[in-house]
Specification:
The complex is a heterodimer of chains A (about 240) and B (about 300). Helix content of chain A is about 40%, strand content about 25%. Chain A is built from 10 helices and 10 strands. Chain A has a single domain, classed as P-loop containing nucleotide triphosphate hydrolases (Rossmann fold). In chain A, helix 3 runs parallel beside helix 6. In chain A, a hairpin with a 2-residue loop joins strand 1 and strand 2. Chain B is mainly α. Chain B has 2 domains: about 190 residues, no CATH class; about 60 residues. Chain B has 11 helices and 2 strands; from the N terminus they run ααααββααααααα. In chain B, a hairpin with a 2-residue loop joins strand 1 and strand 2. The longest helix of chain B has about 45 residues. Chain B starts with a helix and ends in a 12-residue tail after the last helix. Classes of the chains: A alpha/beta (about 240), B mainly alpha (about 300). Chains A and B meet through helix 2, helix 3 and helix 6 of A and helix 6 and helix 7 of B. The complex binds adenosine-5'-triphosphate (ATP) and magnesium ion (MG). Adenosine-5'-triphosphate binds next to strand 2 and helix 1 of chain A.
Chain lengths: ~240, ~300
């Protein structure tokens, strides 16, 4: 397994957001985490990136223990995240936003090559490369967030609700790009409230409910699961 | 009759020009101080109340090295800049880092540090004004009756040079980008592999060093006292509120605006009225455009 999360707990002051969650991610394909508002999905990704403190349990990435490491060390190991709400830098240009993703890299020609390939995924960003990021539409901002994460040349990509606030046409577009990324050899953890979309893309899925994994299995099996259908797929 | 009028007009325009030059000088050292404060606030999210005392520390470095130990003036200025930059590093490490995510804590700690610096200056140099013999008495007569002293010219040149360098640094270098990214969204910056500790250190060093160099260069012009930080910190806050919190360019433009208004009112009326006008300016901005004249920031 590329990533192994063993029984982790995360507390925000008094609130327990994760209460012993374990997940595994192989070195290819998409694993999805679905769940309702406040279930702890973002907290899981934040813990993986070193933004949320893990109070118990272990996180292993490619044979190394990474819990308790600062975010920049985790990025250096190869985990990149496009966070919830996109969090692009509003007063940097599109290109500057993308280049911040390569902050830790010094292989100049390769960076230019990867920038071209991000523009290949998102031609609309190429047209807008010198525009302030805050002037982009929601969908374009999501593209910047994903492109920025790709610029670190990750070995694992975390996507937190990329479909949030987007029109259905747009998230089909984003979905197509996520598939391309995975085909390019980068495994993805996809967090979604849009369970329909997520279970359609992923191989394996976890259902998170109030800080615990309530259900897991092959994505296609979960789609048939009665509880999942009722709670997350609208009947 | 005509000749008298001509004479009055000539004197008036001399006075106007002279006042303008004085304002450029005031804008120069004020923007050095205000930009440092804005940089520290932008990157670390703390209001550094000890910023005026960093300025004071720069001035006293010159008192010590140049006045007492007779080192060359510019060596003392560079030493002051580096020394105060290091004080900044110390503050980052000992105060602001442990108190990160606690802006109020950072503010209170900086007030504590301000008192320490003041006490150190009192113990080392006494409470009296330190008079410093200017390294140069040269004057440029730009026109009949319009004078710029060389000492003031140093301050203006330092402000223009250092602030342009800072601008290029922020726009064109990787660390500069990272600094702007941190100022806009610290967590998102961390997710790009940008180390908050490293960037905070650099911001604190630069911000403090700018205050230090302002103090060092103006030392012969202002007669330092251990309490000289108070007046500049109030001014710096007014400038930042007028310019828009977290806006570097805004701070520079607001410093220029404030310096011009303040200097003109002081010259043609008096200093007390000038201070009042400054405060009124700040209140007006707070009422009419609370994000500051140049802070049009709306988060997407
Ligand atoms: N910074 C924080 N401080 C305190 N509590 C927090 C913080 N962030 C999240 N929480 C709490 O932790 C729990 C899990 O939140 P989390 O953001 O991980 O949920 P989520 O599954 O991502 O929800 P959503 O679908 O709305 O994004 C919630 O109860 C939330 O209120
Ligand atoms: Mg979430």
């Amino acid at each position: 397994m590329l990533l192994e999360v063993k029984e982790i707990h995360v507390h925000y002051s008094k609130v327990a957001a994760l209460k012993g969650v374990s997940i595994e991610v192989p070195s290819g394909g998409i694993v999805t985490i679905i769940g309702a508002n406040g279930a702890g999905k973002s907290t899981m990704l934040r813990a993986l990136s070193g933004l949320a403190p893990v109070s118990a349990g272990e996180i292993w990435f490619d044979g190394e223990r990474i819990d308790g490491r600062p975010p920049e060390k985790i990025v250096a190991r190869g985990i990149a995240q496009a966070p919830e709400g996109r969090r692009i830098f509003p007063d940097l240009t599109v290109e500057e936003n993308l280049r911040t993703g390569a902050f830790l890299r010094s292989d100049k020609p390769e960076i230019e090559h990867d920038l071209d390939s991000v523009f290949g995924h998102f031609p609309r960003l190429k047209e807008r490369r010198t525009q302030w990021a805050k002037t982009l539409s929601g969908g374009e901002q999501q593209m910047v967030a994903i492109g920025r994460a790709l610029m670190s040349k990750p070995r694992l990509l975390l996507l937190d609700e990329p479909s949030m606030g987007l029109a259905p046409v747009l998230f089909q577009e984003i979905a197509a790009i996520v598939i391309e990324i995975v085909k390019g050899g980068v495994p993805v953890i996809l967090v979604e409230q849009n369970a329909e979309l997520a279970l359609g893309l992923a191989k394996y899925a976890y259902v998170l409910e109030t800080g615990r994994v309530s259900l897991e299995g092959a994505a296609e099996d979960l789609r048939e699961n009665e509880h999942v259908r009722k709670a997350y797929l609208g009947g | 009759m005509g000749r008298v009028l001509a004479k009055v007009i000539a004197t008036m325009s001399e006075l106007l020009l002279q006042t303008m030059i004085n304002a450029v000088y005031a804008a120069s050292y004020m923007s050095l101080i205000a930009v440092g404060l804005v940089l520290i606030f932008g990157v670390m999210g703390v209001i550094n109340f000890a910023h005026g005392e960093l300025y004071m520390a720069g001035a006293y470095t010159v008192v010590g090295l140049y006045s007492f130990m007779a080192l060359p003036f510019f060596a003392a200025v560079v030493a002051g800049m580096v020394f105060v930059g290091i004080l900044g590093l110390l503050m980052e490490y000992a105060l602001f880092r442990p108190l990160r995510d606690n802006p109020l804590g950072g503010l209170i700690a900086s007030i504590g540090f301000l008192l320490i610096l003041q006490t150190a200056a009192v113990l080392g140099f006494g409470v009296r004004m330190a008079h410093i013999k200017p390294p140069t008495q040269a004057k440029f007569h730009l026109m009949e009756g319009v004078v710029l002293t060389e000492q003031r010219l140093y301050v203006i040149m330092a402000a223009v040079g250092l602030l342009s360098a800072l601008y290029v640094f922020l726009r064109k270098t990787k660390i500069g980008w990272a600094m702007r990214a941190c100022a806009q969204d610290k967590e998102a910056a961390a997710l790009q592999g940008i180390s908050l500790n490293q960037i905070s250190r650099i911001a604190m060093f630069i911000g403090a060093a700018l205050a230090g160099v302002a103090g060092a260069l103006t030392a012969p012009l202002v007669s330092p006292t251990p309490y000289m930080g108070h007046s500049v910190i109030v001014t710096a806050f007014i400038i930042i509120i007028v310019g828009g919190i977290g806006q570097l360019e805004g701070a520079v433009i607001a410093a220029i605006l404030y310096a011009f208004v303040h200097t003109f009112v002081t010259t043609f009326y008096n200093g007390v009225l000038a201070d009042i006008v400054g405060l009124v300016l700040m209140l007006l901005v707070l009422i009419l455009k609370p994000t500051g004249l140049f802070g049009a920031k709306e988060r997407a």
